[in-house]
Design a protein that fits this description.
The protein is mostly beta strands. The chain is built from two helices and five strands, in the order E-E-E-H-E-H-E. Strand 2 and strand 3 form a beta hairpin.
């Protein structure tokens, strides 16, 4: 699984860019809130931290996965709804396609 399409990096066109998610860490964070009356309420928030590499094209990735043009990192809130696809890798690619720099990339 990867994304492909045209990207611009530092003013240079990469016509057949190949974006490959390399790492995802899922975190569940518990936080507490204290009301004025002293009542403590706990809530859980899910986070997914990712790292992805962008290559000149799929052939460049196949030839040397360590020779990326650049790397991106970020965090998003993964879905845990029963109707959602719970595959964290697929959710990461879907999230990346919502970002302005990558919204025209397609699955490959």
């Amino acid at each position: 699984m990867a994304l492909t399409g045209k990207l611009v990096y530092k003013g240079l066109d990469i016509d057949n860019a190949h974006l490959k998610v390399m790492q995802i860490n899922h975190r569940a964070v518990d936080t507490s809130t204290e009301a004025e009356d002293g009542t403590v309420t706990w809530s859980k928030a899910n986070h997914a931290d990712y790292s992805a590499r962008v290559y000149k094209d799929a052939a460049a990735y196949a030839a040397d996965p360590d020779a990326a043009v650049y790397t991106i990192t970020g965090t998003f809130t993964p879905s845990v709804a029963n109707s959602a696809n719970l595959n964290i890798v697929k959710q990461t690619y879907e999230y990346l396609k919502t970002l302005a720099d990558y919204d025209e990339l397609t699955d490959c």
